[in-house]
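Morning F.,

Quick status update on the modeling queue. The single chain you submitted on Monday has been processed. Sequence for confirmation:
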Amino acid sequence: MKRLALSVGLFSLQVSLVASLTGCRGDVSEDPPILLERNMFQQERYDPQAFSPFFEDHRSMRSPVEGTVSREHYEADDTIATGRLLDNSGYILTIPNAIAGRLGGPDKMVQRGQERFNIYCTPCHDKTGTGRGTVARVPNGFAKLPSFYEARIREMPDGQMFSTISNGVRLMPSYGAQVPVNDRWAIVSYVRALQMSQLAANTTGADQGKK
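Structure tokens below.
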């Protein structure tokens, strides 16, 4: 009998506790919330770029282990990965043939380059490559960007243009992290297509003028 009474008492206590907790829903209180699993809300962590007393160099953001290789972005061919000759004496002159093969042929490579160019490059260079994109037209913003049709850029090796996209130059940031290797080469192919179309248009116009 005593056990039955004890069980009933414990059950009543549980019901009262649940009812009291349920009745508090919607009430305003300045007391801190009850956290049954506090570590889920207050985890020990570091903010980006924060100071760390744990590591010897006091940096919370750790560098990758030396010698590790990314499976997603690894490129075995150094000339394709960097745009430079194997002896590092200069840039490769033309887009490697392997790139067109990877992207389904020259036509698809240029199409892919146009798609990526319109996403990443037009804000500054505009769709025709004259250097008068939306960002470049901001009042008191960037200085006028170079046109892709300047002789300096038309005569630039393809590898140098690829390297510029990969690593950035002056005000232009690096796009190596956002744009995969094959797509960077595809963008180079599209820029060359733009230059050729402009040259063809100018040549046709000059010929018509002579007539």
